[in-house]
User: Fold this.
Amino acid sequence: MPYLEQWGMPFDTRSLASVFEQIENNKTDKCVLIIDEVEGINSKYLGDFLHSIRSAYHSRTNHSLKSVILVGVNNIIGVVQYNASHFNIAENLDVPYFTNEETLELFAQHEQETGQLFEAKVKAKISEITANQPGLVNGFA
Assistant:
């Protein structure tokens, strides 16, 4: 079952409302929502979904959601850029998955540059739950 990492609790993936309820009820922490396989969202509702995220942005002082990362294999730039703010960032990148070694190298670079150290079990867990997908690895780290 997927994991709501910030609060360390599982959630029902059939109910995105439960995720947003957690975000709305938490007023103190900062949350980055990462949605993988965004192409799985019904195309009829994707525009409405993106507008809902935008609406949440305008009320960001009332909840913990501070950023949203959409990850997928399809190009959704046209949808994101349609009638969107110039401050939104949308880029279509072809990025291969990291190997385990590349993920560890990325952590080592971060640790060397910032002094922030990750425990080995944290590195292993991030590799496991992200399957070394670059955007997710960086998001979790």
User: Anything to note?
Assistant: The chain is about 45% helix and 10% strand. The CA atoms of residues 69 and 105 lie 23 Å apart. Confidence is low (pLDDT under 50) at residues 1-7.
